[in-house]
Write a structure and sequence with these properties.
Blueprint (H helix, E strand, L loop, with lengths): L1 E5 L6 H12 L2 E4 H11 L2 H11 L6 H11 L9 E4 L5 H12 L7 E6 L2 H17 L10 H15 L3 H6 L3 E5 L4 H13 L7 H7 L1
Parallel strand pairs: 1-3, 1-4, 2-3, 4-5
The structure holds adenosine monophosphate.
Adenosine monophosphate (AMP) binds next to helix 2 and helix 3.
Length: 207
C-alpha cells in the first residue's frame, strides 16, 4: 500500500508515520529526515539543502524527487511505504504519479491531518521548550519566526496539491487536533477501508 500522509508542519506526521510503519509493515519515508541526515553527513545533497532547510524554505523539486525515486527502489519498499513530508509541491505530486505509474503503481490514499494554525504554533513552542529542557539543540527551523515561514510555504506551495488528489478521489481527512492515540485510531480506520489496488499482473490474470 502506498500512503501519503499530508498536513502542515508540526501536525504530527512523523509520529503517525512511524506508527503506520510499525503496525502496517510499510516503509517510512520522510524527506525531512533524509535531508537532515544528508546535512549531518555533509554529502553534496546536504550541502545544497542546508541553508534552505534551516531558513524554512523548500529544497528544489529535482533534489527531493531524486531522493524519493532512489529510495523507493529499496527492498523494504516492496510491500509499500508511507510518505511523510513528500510531495510538498504540485510538481512533486505529478513527478510521484509518473514515477509510480512507471512501475504500474499509484498512491492508494492521501491521509490529510487537519490541525489549526494556533495549535501548530503552540506545539512548536512546546517542542522547542522540551528539547531545550533536555539540554538538546533545537532544530533551527523550529525557531518561531522560521516556523511561521514554513507555515506560509505550506499554504502557498503545499496545500495547492490537495485539488490534485481530490480529482483522483484519494483524500481521507482525520482530525489532527485529537490526542495522538485517537489520531492513530482514525488513521487505522482509514487504512482498514482502503482496497488494495490490483497489480497490473493480477489485473491481467483475473481481468
Ligand atoms: P520536515 O521534517 O518534513 O518538516 O522537513 C523539514 C524541511 O526539509 C522542510 O522545511 C524543507 O526545507 C525540507 N523538505 C522536506 N521535505 C521536502 C520536500 N518534499 N520538498 C522540499 N523541501 C523539503
Amino acid at each position: 500500500m502506498i500512503i501519503v500522509l499530508f498536513g502542515p508542519p508540526a501536525a504530527g506526521k512523523g509520529t503517525q508515520a512511524k506508527r503506520i510503519h510499525e503496525k502496517h509493515g510499510v516503509a517510512h519515508l520522510s524527506t525531512g529526515d533524509m535531508l537532515r541526515a544528508a546535512i549531518a553527513a555533509g554529502t553534496e545533497t546536504g550541502k545544497k539543502a542546508k541553508a534552505l532547510v534551516e531558513a524554512g524554505h523548500l529544497v528544489p523539486d529535482e533534489i527531493v524527487v531524486g531522493i524519493i525515486a532512489e529510495r523507493i527502489t529499496a527492498k523494504d519498499c516492496a510491500s509499500g511505504f508511507v510518505l511523510d513530508g513528500f510531495p510538498r509541491t504540485v510538481n512533486q505530486a505529478v513527478a510521484l504519479d509518473t514515477m509510480l505509474a512507471g512501475k504500474s503503481l499509484a498512491v492508494d490514499v492521501v491521509i490529510v491531518m487537519a490541525v489549526d494554525e494556533a495549535t501548530l504554533i503552540k506545539r512548536v513552542e512546546n517542542r522547542a521548550a522540551e528539547t531545550r529542557a533536555k539540554g538538546e539543540p533545537v532544530r533551527a527551523d523550529d525557531d518561531p519566526e522560521t516556523f511561521k515561514k514554513r507555515l506560509a510555504v505550506y499554504k502557498a506551495e503545499t496545500a495547492p496539491i490537495l485539488p490534485h488528489y481530490e480529482r483522483q478521489g484519494k483524500i481521507k481527512r482525520v482530525d489532527g487536533m485529537k490526542p495522538m492515540d485517537e489520531v492513530t485510531a482514525q488513521i487505522d480506520a482509514v487504512i482498514a477501508g482502503v482496497k488494495p489496488r490490483k497489480s497490473w499482473l493480477s489485473k491481467w490474470l483475473t481481468g
